[in-house]
């Protein structure tokens, strides 16, 4: 049974989902921009009972309190404080997109907390000539609507990639249907993530699985292959027909790759 819980870290209330079981090997799951911890229900179900997936609502997302600052270092500090509060570490860290960048930066800066990485389409560079546009402009999106269909119309009308990703993370809060984020916060957070993160990517040597969608504009194939070639102990698995959201485009394949990688790790 999963449980939605809260924790106070440095004065900010964070929400998280513990998918259990308590006896499982802990896996910290970190979502990307516009996501929330509960999106990892598929991972918790697939890896149980051997693994215990714990998914944090990162700052400005889900049930965690909104508000700046969104400097990438703050995301890393949040994850480290969260693991220490729970008395966990070293753990496997699974991260999608921005969550993957937080994951490998956590491994570089707090090596004692991370034993392995599973990264779904997380790049070593955000912005610049080798990758696609780094900011999805959601500045005109509403925070809330009376009906979920109204939010669906916003997402589909905007042409957002994988509309289900955005809609699956909506919820009814008693006053209407809402996205799990404030659009202004997401604009600020995306801009703050732009940068060259190669030093952090190369700053750890724990085993890492890099899952890459061949159609992704966030992580081009050439960059994914360079990341795997330059960092020791890194396994690259490519999904040529998938985009940035591999967990939507080929969930069975992603889970197989993840299980196979986890099976190579020594038991903690």
TrEMBL record:
Q: Which organism is it from?
A: Nocardia terpenica
Q: What keywords were assigned to this record?
A: Hydrolase
Q: Which domain of life is it from?
A: Bacteria
Single GO MF descriptor? hydrolase activity
**What is the protein's name according to its record?**
Alpha/beta hydrolase
Tell me which InterPro entries the record gives. AB_hydrolase_1 (IPR000073), AB_hydrolase_fold (IPR029058), AB_hydrolase_sf (IPR050266)
Which PANTHER family does the record match to this protein?
A: AB HYDROLASE SUPERFAMILY PROTEIN YCLE, MONOACYLGLYCEROL LIPASE
Q: Name one Pfam family in it.
A: Abhydrolase_1
A GO cellular component entry from the record: membrane
Annotated ranges, domain AB hydrolase-1: 26-250
